[in-house]
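Bumping my old thread because nobody answered last time. Still need a sequence for this structure:
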């Protein structure tokens, strides 16, 4: 995914993004419900990718994104855990408690890719809903920020 894909992001329909997010949350809930907290993030990533693919969605893992700033290109500036349908960023954690920096990380990814929505899923919480954060990019140039 190129960080200059603003035009592609503007073409995303909110109903498609919301449908994709609902499927992702449902997949995450079932994985957490069946296995509980305590696995490594890489295990949840593999399981989420497979569950999303079985739900009929395109999923890419560990998507490397370059950063372009004032003529400088930084290859591999960050990696998206899961990019679903080229429209939804999933950042997965398996920690006891989310920290504010985790949400900021997702928001930065959204801003740099010009995507409107990301989900932060912490599989380390006893209850899945307590580890789920919806991050919306309201920054100028995003689909939801226009």
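Sorry it took so long. Here it is:
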């Amino acid at each position: 995914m190129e960080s200059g894909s603003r035009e592609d992001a503007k073409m995303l329909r909110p109903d498609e993004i919301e449908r994709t997010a609902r499927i992702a949350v449902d997949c995450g809930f079932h994985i957490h419900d069946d296995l509980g907290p305590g696995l490594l993030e890489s295990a949840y990533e593999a399981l989420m990718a497979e569950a999303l693919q079985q739900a009929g969605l395109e999923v890419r893992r560990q998507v490397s994104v370059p950063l372009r700033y004032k003529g400088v290109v930084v290859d591999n500036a960050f990696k998206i855990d899961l990019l679903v349908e080229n429209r939804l960023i999933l950042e997965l954690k398996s920690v006891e408690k989310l920290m504010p920096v985790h949400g900021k990380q997702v928001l930065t990814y959204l801003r740099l890719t010009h995507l409107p929505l990301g989900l932060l899923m912490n599989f380390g919480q006893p209850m899945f809903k307590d580890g789920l954060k919806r991050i919306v990019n309201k920054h100028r140039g995003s689909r939801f920020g226009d």
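The CA atoms of residues 57 and 78 lie 23 Å apart. Let me know if any region looks off to you.
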